[in-house]
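Morning!

This is the sequence you dropped in the shared folder:
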Amino acid sequence: MKITDSHVTIVSNLGLYYLQTGDNANAIKTFEEVIDLNFKSTPAYYYLALAYNNNQEGLKAINALEQFAINSGNIPQAYQMAIQLTANSKYQQLYFQAKQAYFSGNFQQAYQLVQQSIQQGNNYQPAIDFKQDLDDAIAKNNQQ
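The structure's back. Tokens below.
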């Protein structure tokens, strides 16, 4: 059977139902299935992070939020949650602040924050990749 967008939507809606009814274990399982069906489904990473956070699994929530950010998710609440969850990890917090600044249109602040994240995080790979994306965008913009 070919998986279509409607399959992903149906499974996502089931995950949202579990999340809204407080059934975090099934929400986690369902959003992991959505990600298996469509690994670039950024909302699924966000909702998975919510379920993990509700389940008191902070590290797993942060990992889901990193995947959300890597896939260019643009849900402001996700970055707020990530910033709160990473309060004890300055380099991760700076990375999520950089992503938040970027999606708010503050590119200069995003660049400064991601540089700080790399410096403090001993070459934190998601920050390095994001900085490279910013550098590529700047170079492309300068060529036009």
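Headline: The mean pLDDT is 89.

More detail when I'm at my desk.
O.
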